[in-house]
């Protein structure tokens, strides 16, 4: 059985130890494992064949998502499924789905006119982020109306969330199927490069994580949470993250991919209308 991993460029450009181990395990189990980075290939989309038994999408880039869509139209099997990844990557769509599933998350808004945020700033600071951003790129925190002028007008969709003051630590939750892990590390702009330390997974945290997977149709994914005074809030969901700081996770990932490839695991994205009734006008 042939597997193809659609990878993202790493900074620095060194292979992920988790993926290296997972590749070795899958190869020893008889899988033919291949991989590529979309931005480093020359591909004719009109002639791109779905020739592998399973594609594993491990990249968030626009080009990777476009090629995944081309493969999806040809019936290619993909982990996580393409339309689930597309919904997750779009933070506006994901915000609606998380709300529909009752997941605790910051309130969110969208607008193309940042001056309309003035009334919101009377009650809460805001965080403005690209609707398909990743690793904190392009995020701006706005606390006062005078800071709205610092927001650069853009035609690209932006998601606005209420800014929730946390503990100063990153709380990341990683999921492999039904197995849930947590990692804590000091917050910084480059904290995504740091492994962090394993943390306890409470029953509330586990249920929150699994609810995100159900409503977004994911099996390999991660959550970023901020711990407010009341409860943890999900601020972002990522499909197939790096699993930094999770001990012994590579064999679990290899097992999950093997089961998915063999058909004993499957995923689908629930229809939003089946989750919740309309909530009224804007």
What this model shows, in words?
With 282 residues, the protein is an alpha+beta fold. It has 7 helices and 13 strands. The termini are far apart. The strands form 3 sheets. Strands 11-10-9-12-13 form a 5-stranded antiparallel sheet. Strands 2-1-3-4 form a 4-stranded parallel sheet, sandwiched between helices.
Relevant CATH superfamily of the largest domain: ATP-grasp fold, B domain
Strand tally is 13
Gyration radius from CA atoms, angstroms: 19 Å
CATH class call of the largest domain: Alpha Beta
Lateral strand order in the biggest sheet: 11-10-9-12-13
Estimate what percentage of residues fall within beta strands: 15-25%
CATH architecture of the largest domain: 2-Layer Sandwich
Q: State the helical fraction.
A: 25-40%
Oligomer: single chain
Q: Could you tell me the mean pLDDT?
A: 90
Which outline best applies? globular
- Indicate the CATH topology of the largest domain: D-amino Acid Aminotransferase, Chain A, domain 1
Ranges where pLDDT stays below 50 over 5 or more residues in a row are 275-282
SSE series: EHEEHEHHEHEEEEEEHEEH
Structural class: alpha+beta
Query: What count of domains describes the coordinates?
Result: 3
Q: How many H/I helical runs?
A: 7
Largest sheet composition: 5 strands, antiparallel
How far is the first residue's CA from the last residue's CA? 49 Å
């Amino acid at each position: 059985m042939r597997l193809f991993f659609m990878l993202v460029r790493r900074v620095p450009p060194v292979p992920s130890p988790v993926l290296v181990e997972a590749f070795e395990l899958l190869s020893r189990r008889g899988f033919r494992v291949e991989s590529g980075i979309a931005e480093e290939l020359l591909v004719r989309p009109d002639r791109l064949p779905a020739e592998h038994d399973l594609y594993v999408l491990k990249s968030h880039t626009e080009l990777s998502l476009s090629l995944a869509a081309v493969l999806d139209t040809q019936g290619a099997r993909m982990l996580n499924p393409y339309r689930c990844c597309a919904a997750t990557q779009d933070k506006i769509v994901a915000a609606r789905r998380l709300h529909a599933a009752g997941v605790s998350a910051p309130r969110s808004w969208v607008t193309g006119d940042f001056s309309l945020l003035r009334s919101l700033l009377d009650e809460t600071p805001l965080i403005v982020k690209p609707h398909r951003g990743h690793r904190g790129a392009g995020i701006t925190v706005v606390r006062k109306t005078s800071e709205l002028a610092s927001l650069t007008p853009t035609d690209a969709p932006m998601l606005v969330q209420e800014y929730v003051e946390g503990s100063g630590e990153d709380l990341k939750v990683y999921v492999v199927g039904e197995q849930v892990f947590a990692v804590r590390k000091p917050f910084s702009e480059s904290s995504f490069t740091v492994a962090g330390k394993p943390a306890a997974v409470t029953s509330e945290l586990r249920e929150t994580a699994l609810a995100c997977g159900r409503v977004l149709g994911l099996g390999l994914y991660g959550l970023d949470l901020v711990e407010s005074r009341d409860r943890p809030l999900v601020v972002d969901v990522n499909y197939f993250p790096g699993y930094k700081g999770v001990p012994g996770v590579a064999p679990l990932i290899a097992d999950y991919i093997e089961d998915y490839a063999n058909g004993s695991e499957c995923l689908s994205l629930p229809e939003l209308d089946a989750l919740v009734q309309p909530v009224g006008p804007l």
